[in-house]
């Protein structure tokens, strides 16, 4: 069984036993969280699609770790204008271990 969840402005396809990295949420390591914004739930050939959310569906997960992604380099250059700008960014994430998918 799998589900399509919405968190942090993004959508993720998850199944039980998977690890995913999502936008950082305020939860302690080891804490059990429940995600109730489920857009779709599938089981083999069956697929329930919400309008916009599936009623009564939820995904439970455990927070494994918090961290930061690799650095993304931003480099701007205007040729022949003596303009160079270099910048970097590291986005925070929360790693989740999906326990169960209830649909």
UniProtKB/TrEMBL annotation:
Pfam families: Ribosomal_L21p (PF00829). One of its GO terms (biological process) is translation. Keywords: Ribonucleoprotein, Ribosomal protein, RNA-binding, rRNA-binding. InterPro entries: bL21-like, bL21-like_sf, Ribosomal_bL21, Ribosomal_bL21_CS. Belongs to the bacterial ribosomal protein bL21 family. PANTHER family: 50S RIBOSOMAL PROTEIN L21, LARGE RIBOSOMAL SUBUNIT PROTEIN BL21M. This protein binds to 23S rRNA in the presence of protein L20. This is Large ribosomal subunit protein bL21. The gene is rplU.
């Amino acid at each position: 069984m799998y589900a399509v969840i919405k968190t942090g402005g993004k959508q993720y396809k998850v199944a039980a036993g998977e690890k995913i990295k999502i936008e950082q949420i305020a939860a302690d390591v080891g804490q059990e969280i429940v995600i109730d914004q489920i857009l779709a739930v599938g089981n083999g050939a069956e697929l329930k699609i919400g309008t916009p959310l599936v009623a009564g569906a939820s995904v439970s997960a455990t927070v494994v770790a918090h961290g930061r992604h690799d650095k993304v380099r931003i480099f701007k250059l205007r040729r022949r204008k003596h303009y160079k700008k270099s910048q970097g960014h590291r986005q925070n994430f929360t790693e989740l271990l999906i326990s169960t998918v209830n649909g």
